[in-house]
Design the sequence.
């Protein structure tokens, strides 16, 4: 049995009503899903937002990761538990309170659960629970999203079948059907086969649900009305004379919103240490913005003195999109940014091969600092934010490596602390909590940076200019290569009125550049934009710079083969 | 706004905890889904089954219907409300109690909700509520079933992609992926396109989720262990040398069961009159057995003195499968069978055309009695049951027609009463409730038929012999035509060890025969078996006798276009 599942199943959970009461949400206001999960309805959250001052927002992001991941989710959970542990200790000692913390995280997709990577509910003693439920279709949000997406696709094909009065060009259909599984065989399909009663034949394919625009919309919507409005704007296809065909045109917006109505309320669960955690939404971090729902983040801010949330991938992708896209549509801005680093990722970016990452190598670790330092500099200089580095400790890290890393970063002028929440829960993240509290205090005292939201580009910039600014400021690129076919697509987006949308770059997370083999802090490279796509409902233009897989496949021996349930309903084999 | 939705939204619902307490299930034992829906965990049901005597079981079935449907679900709800209303009145009058009633019904599919037929939560003043939730993916059971089914399909294609060590023949794959929508364009597909990374190309297609074997299994399973065992047995494909490849062979049974673990607990809701109602599972009534889950029916029997449940289509299909398949795997047997008839269906079977069904025509109505009488005779003579006829009143029925129908049926020797639950709720079904109570009393006094479960065939009969017996006894057919290719498939099923499974006939519901234009009680016709399929996990052989659509399409103007949600979350346009 996996250690994570063992710890999770041994945990003693509080009733979700008790968790909610602890942050002032009465039981009557909850929509329970069992006794340890609940949705908090949007009218309740709106009322609380009006009544209370929002808490401070802490964004957890990371340096460019290794393929094993550096523990952003685990750190987010550990930090929130650490903030609450600090608050409890202060109270016990009769000292001034530091305030309570509430988490906001993404929901896991079933793709990795049944594939290779496993679940996404944290790990060790920094987990959200009930772990099995969260990992196994939870409160059904992803299914609602899949149904809404697939209803639009079915209605579009149905429209074509019944005469196609909108003159949809079957070669220019952009929406794909989705499923929340890794299902390689559905990447490329033909549909509508079988003659007169089987619809109109066309080339097609399926994506995983987290890659859908409906998922991105779900996570950016600020209300049910905003959700409906955004869904209406999705461009499903183009006509033969190149006019956009939207969800509104085929009359699907109302039914799609009806399918999503209940799902839109954020899900409340708890950490192993009973910190309230909103787990809601989970768009891809490449072709979408990679953050939990705006509503979950705002819910955490409404209920907590501290709200801890996370953005996918490294800071060049996750934090950039969080800051340039999500905060702006949500009307929020972080007070502190926690950048997760690991000794092994530092060594990796210092040139050490994967097989050697567990061998002590202070020199390589310091050489890899260039990557982390660049991310820190971007957060400070481009966005005016206050970063804190969490050095997420792994068993193979040596004390010498950790000490050298911390000393180096402090010299660089940033708060940096080792964190051991995986092994010790909130207690292992007390120093990190203190660093975050200190950074926020400094900022609030006026000695810190200014607090105005900033973007890395202006919305009035052309899409090309936006890409150039992101590439040079965030990726250290020397230039952007936009092939003429792609430039023509961008001109078309501008002509259709989408020129002022932000851009959402899909590229590798393993390098600042679009070449995963360029580690450290490469400079002067060229960002090649292979393709662009419009997400008119989500409200961004996706720039695809690399191989982006929107339907993963299962490995030769998928995790699903090892998952089981005994006659009493106890699940085994999840990790 | 539709009248059904208007009535449902105006209803005052009780807390589901209160509904559960009313039948002796403490709040602590429930798994709430919001405040008006809950799942009752299997261990709780098992405990109650051990503690209490099971209630009497009333099966609601129907004469051969018109395309508009005769109101089986509405009658089931009305009868349960009527039984409870009678019980309350007795108590109020200080008379001996007649016992409380609990419902067990199928969950609606989203296909008809967004297509043409609308929802399936009853109608008028005989509804289960919350109507919008029940009709719009409810507690997520169908999504869990779709995921489990699609995981098996993905793992099979993944196995083929990664070397196909089982030697699966891509031309002999039986499992289809499913979605809970009417999506015509997915009927015929090719998948695995796009080269090396896209899997292995093959011809494929999608079914609607209610047509899947996983759905049938879900509804026949008696425990989590039985569910896992049945899933393991599903034959997904055959190898090139014609050996079956099962779910167990590809290692998917555990993960499929994990996905279905929570879904397997029956969902508890209430009628407009607060009768407890289990709404759980919903397999097709043609290629599957068309009844709610065994667990829901047993839950209703455990908690009610009366359990009212329904079988899909007319009695030749629904009741036959309920009796020959479901009761036997569930270990239950009905005490009374309520056969729903309508004046318009009687006229239809008496030869009146659809457009003229609202015109009074006593003679035609009496001519159509042949159909109803045949169903009644089968229930009595083949199965030894006690039928009661519920004449479900429609506004266009004249008093003369109703009086003549009742008089005729009483002369035929059956209890027959008009019922007006659509217009008046339980009060409109008091006479029906009394008829059911009287029939059960008669049976229990020993003057009724014997109570031994019977099948219309023996399990030891060959599949051909089973079909011949069903055809002659239930359909009044003169013979069965089994083409040699179909006979060869049946021989293969027998050779593989499936010869003793019951058969599940898929044919039109509009006629006793397989020709929908043969109304009344046709005799001597031939049942042509076009194809047979094995559902090894569900435990039956499907005999396809007619055009069976396992993936419906949307009409030119689907209902989905008229469904909407306002900014407060109120849903409109459902019917």
Sequence:
């Amino acid at each position: 049995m996996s250690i994570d599942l063992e710890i999770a199943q041994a945990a003693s959970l509080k009733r979700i009503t008790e968790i909610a009461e602890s942050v002032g949400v009465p039981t009557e206001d909850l929509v329970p899903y069992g006794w340890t999960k609940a949705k908090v309805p949007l009218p309740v959250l709106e009322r609380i937002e009006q009544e209370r001052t929002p808490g401070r927002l802490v964004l957890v992001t990371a340096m460019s990761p290794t393929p094993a991941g550096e523990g952003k989710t685990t750190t987010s959970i550990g930090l929130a538990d650490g903030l609450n542990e600090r608050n409890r200790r202060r109270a016990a000692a009769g000292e001034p309170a530091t305030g309570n913390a509430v988490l906001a995280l993404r929901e896991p997709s079933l793709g990795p659960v049944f594939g290779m990577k496993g679940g996404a509910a944290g790990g060790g003693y920094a987990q959200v629970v009930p772990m099995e439920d969260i990992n196994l279709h939870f409160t059904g949000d992803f299914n609602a999203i899949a149904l809404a997406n697939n209803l639009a696709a079915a209605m579009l094909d149905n429209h074509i079948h019944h005469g196609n009065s909108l003159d949809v060009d079957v070669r220019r259909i952009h929406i794909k059907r989705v499923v929340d599984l890794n299902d390689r065989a559905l990447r490329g399909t033909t549909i509508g086969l079988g003659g007169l009663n089987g619809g109109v034949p066309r080339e097609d394919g399926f994506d995983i649900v987290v890659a859908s625009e409906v998922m991105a919309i779900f996570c950016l919507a600020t209300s049910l009305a905003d959700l409906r409005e955004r869904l209406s704007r999705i461009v499903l296809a183009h006509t033969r004379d190149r006019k956009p065909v939207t969800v509104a045109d085929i009359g699907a917006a109302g039914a799609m919103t009806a399918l999503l109505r209940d799902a839109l309320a954020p899900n409340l669960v708890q950490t192993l240490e009973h910190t309230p955690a909103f787990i809601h939404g989970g768009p891809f971090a490449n072709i979408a913005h990679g953050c939990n729902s705006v509503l979950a983040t705002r819910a955490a801010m409404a209920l907590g003195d501290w709200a801890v949330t996370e953005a996918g991938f490294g800071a060049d992708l996750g934090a950039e999109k969080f800051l340039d896209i999500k905060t702006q549509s949500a009307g929020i801005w972080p007070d502190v940014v926690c950048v997760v680093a690991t000794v092994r990722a530092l060594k990796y970016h210092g040139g050490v091969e994967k097989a050697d990452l567990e061998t002590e190598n202070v020199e390589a670790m310091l050489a890899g600092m260039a990557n982390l330092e660049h991310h820190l500099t971007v957060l400070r200089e481009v966005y005016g934010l206050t970063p804190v580095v969490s050095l997420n400790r792994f068993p193979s890290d040596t004390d010498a490596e950790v000490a050298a890393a911390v000393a180096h970063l402090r010299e660089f002028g940033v708060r940096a602390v080792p964190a051991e929440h995986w092994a010790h829960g909130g207690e292992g993240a007390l120093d990190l909590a203190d660093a975050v509290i200190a950074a926020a205090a400094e900022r609030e005292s006026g000695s810190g940076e200014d607090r105005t939201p900033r973007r890395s580009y202006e919305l009035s910039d052309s899409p090309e200019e936006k890409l150039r600014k992101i590439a040079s400021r965030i990726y250290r690129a020397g230039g952007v290569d936009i092939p003429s076919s792609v430039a023509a697509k961008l001109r078309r987006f501008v002509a259709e009125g989408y020129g002022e949308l932000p851009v959402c770059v899909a590229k590798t997370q393993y390098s600042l550049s679009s070449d995963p083999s360029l580690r450290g802090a490469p400079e002067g490279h060229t960002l090649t934009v292979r393709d662009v796509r419009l997400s008119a409902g989500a409200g961004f233009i996706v720039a695809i710079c690399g191989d982006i897989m929107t339907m993963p496949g299962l490995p030769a021996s998928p995790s699903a083969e090892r998952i089981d349930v005994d006659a009493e309903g106890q699940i085994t084999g999840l990790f």
Observations:
- Chain A touches chain B through 84 residues (CB under 8 Å).
